[in-house]
Amino acid sequence: MASEYEGESDSYSADVFFVVGIVKIGLACFGVIANLIAIAVLIDRSMRSSTSAILISLAVYDSVFLLASAGVVLGPSDAIWLMLTVIYPIRYIAQMGSVYSTVIVTIERFIVVAYPMKARIICTLSNSRILMVVVFIFCVGFNIPRCLLFLMIPEVNSTANASIPFDSDYMNFHNNIYERYLTTIFYFLIPYNFIVLLNIRLLMTLRKSKKRTIKLSRHHHDRKASSAINNPADKEDSLTTIVVGITGCFFVCCFIPMVYNLIVLCEPTLRNDKSTFYLLPVGDTMLCINSATDFIFYCLLGRRFRSLFRKKFCRWRHHRRDTMTSQNTGTL
């Protein structure tokens, strides 16, 4: 009876991981294409700003993360060397880069909204590029232990039919300190709490700013709607709204992975528990959703982004609209 139950459990686990793998591949296909489109729009001259530079970096990290996640699913099961030396380190570097790009863009938006005068000096395009380089170096440096992990895997000596000794102290450091404590702290706890606190303050500041804007707008009822689209303040508000949406998605999607890491951190023996075991693939899928859905927030919350997107990728609609307008003008 027990063996029959275990067989059913293993079959169920295989089905779950198969479905999760299909979902990850679908998210990777959609997310990479969507992120490439987002980059094509964000590099436009009219969108050029420090925030756009960070969002481009975020889209690149998300695309690499999605490709690496799909590589884990599609990679051959016997290619353990390829997984440990290439795919897993790149995946974690991209994940960390995405996390801290989200943190930086949240800080940048908070400075712009809360301290607009200081933002002209701090939030510049050159400073954003420097920060992105620093983030990349930090992410690569933090994940060097993962790149070296394959050196510590015991190899089999075919002639002596025995395992070659490996550094057990390093493996103990990697499994107990690096994976449990450092990864949980730097991947989840620090950025998660930072983003939550900054978003609360950002929303409070936006609310106060909106009230001031409403009071001032009462004296300018004759202002044309067309001029509002080209107003720099409107551009900043649009970018801020996009960032709030992206960070909100980050908050939701990273919750399950953070819970899993905290459970393993507090009680490592629960890693193999059935209820905890399924949190890992679900959490990985949520991370893929987070990396694949930024484009949706750009389209839903960014009026300027939507306008440029239609201009770049829906030119036939613009041409048809212009033709109909000219015909109507000629008729009138």
Automatic annotation (TrEMBL):
Compartment(s) where it occurs, according to its Swiss-Prot or TrEMBL record: Membrane
Residues covered by the G-protein coupled receptors family 1 profile domain: 34-298
Any one Gene Ontology MF annotation carried by this entry is: G protein-coupled receptor activity
- Kindly list the residue ranges recorded as spanning the membrane: 16-43, 55-77, 97-117, 129-153, 185-204, 242-265, 277-301
Q: Which UniProt keywords apply?
A: Membrane, Transmembrane, Transmembrane helix
GO cellular component terms attached to this protein's record: membrane
Name of this protein:
G-protein coupled receptors family 1 profile domain-containing protein
Tell me the organism. Answer: Lottia gigantea (Giant owl limpet)
